[in-house]
Amino acid sequence: MKKWIGICLAIVMGATVIAGCSNKDKEETAGGASNTPQKTEFSISMRTLAFNYVEKSPDLNKDKWVKKLEEMTNTDLDIVLVPHKEFEQKMVQMFATNDIPDVVQGSGGVNGKEMAGSVEAGVFMPLDDLLQQNGQNLLKVIPKEAWENVTYQGKIYAIPEFLSNPSRRATWIRKDLLDQTGLQVPKTVDEYLTVLRAFNKLGIENPYMGRQDFKYADAFFGAYDVFPYLTMFEEVNGQVQPKFMDSENMMKALQTYNTMYTEGLINKEFATINPTNYKNAILSGKAGMWTMNANELLQWEQQLKATTPSAKLEIIPSPVGPDGKGGSYLYGSATRTYFIKEGTKNAADIVKFFDWMLSEEAETFFTFGIKDETYKEENGKIVYTSPADSAAIDEERYRQSFLWMVQDTTYNKGVLNMTEEGRSLINVYDTILANEGRDGIQFDPRLDALVKNPDIAPNSDTAPPVLLTHMVKMVYGKEPISDWPKVVEEWLSKGGNDVIKEATEKYNNKAGVTMPRR
Length: 518
Fold this sequence. Notes:
Blueprint: H1 2-11, E1 40-47, H2 52-55, H3 64-73, E2 75-82, H4 87-97, E3 103-106, H5 128-134, H6 136-141, H7 144-149, E4 151-152, E5 155-156, E6 159-162, E7 169-174, H8 175-181, H9 189-201, E8 206-208, H10 219-223, E9 233-236, E10 239-242, H11 247-262, H12 275-283, E11 287-293, H13 297-305, E12 313-316, E13 334-340, H14 347-356, H15 360-368, E14 376-378, E15 381-383, H16 390-402, H17 413-416, H18 420-431, E16 442-443, H19 448-451, H20 465-475, H21 484-509, E17 513-514
Parallel strand pairs: 1-2, 1-3, 8-11
Antiparallel strand pairs: 3-13, 4-5, 6-13, 7-11, 7-12, 9-10, 14-15, 16-17
């Protein structure tokens, strides 16, 4: 472990540590006996996830919802926020300086890029025994697939937040604008372009809302099944290779984005639009179509109506390509994950804290808030009205999604079942999302050849740097799209050949391989 820390220090020498990371004194307070159980004190790092409520908070540790959570669980939390946009960089810095909180939130499995090899290095403790003793709710509710994502060498190393439906991202449309055009819901790529052109004629500033790195703006890569992501491998003529090597379909996808750029159907500056500006443009009524997690639909619609009262949002089937299929990439079974640092004295109580997250009391608190403050009870039933103003919606979203650390994040069934609109959204999951989505051959742990070559290594939902640069230039018309095979050759020459060799060997040997779910 010391050798590993030394290597990380050499890599990021001089880098600053995560702002706000503190080490609270965990020693028991001396003094007389008390009937009040001692609070469980622990520090925990959490990605901000670009949540407005979180990023605008002057001190989240003093937030009223954190304080209520501490009161209900008899804990004293020291939340260390990790900036969303710099998550991987800041995580590596944290491990390099060895200033590691008691609990570290990861993005998925044990081998994520942000974990920087920390699990293999013994930074975190195995949790199997602690879960058996203190985490029965966790073991009963969390599905097997999610536990498998946080298992290393036969041991469980993290507590996962989970998804029961891997199809999470969806194509959203301003249905009120579509109705104005007189067009039907589009299905094919060409039909989508027709709708976007109609939006453009209506004067919509962003017919299709773009975003940097094509993140949450990648529906047309899905149509052609060429997502350039970590999980997107396929077997072609006995060789396992990334799907972006399908040059014919990749060039069709890039040509679609180039057409959108040339005709003004996507913002000319899409490559620099960050998550905050992306959302602000949508909520100010300046976008006609975009991609976002389906479970946020009702909250975003309420916020949008504050500026555009006539707006109506709807989730529609994503554009389909030549094979008649489409959709966003399928998520892994584990979304956020929580690792406990080796040597943490109160690890058993920390597991109890997470176990409580799946209790009925926790579900009521995170879903509806505080009795007689944010909801009421009448005849034994909860009466809850979702907020309408933007700030209150941000607060609700923070409580239900950010602060509720372990749950099924597919959607909030408690809130959705209370209204017709909510039940309609559940139906969207059961009909539209259940029938779309792209997946590929996956490898866990991550292929060594990718770990050794970060320039050619994709993230979970963004292309590797060596590809992304060319993708943007091609959409902007600064490089010919017909040169994509040369881009593939560049990727191969920089270590891609080793990636394919290793992937094919592991595939043939059935070593750490997960096959596509759809």
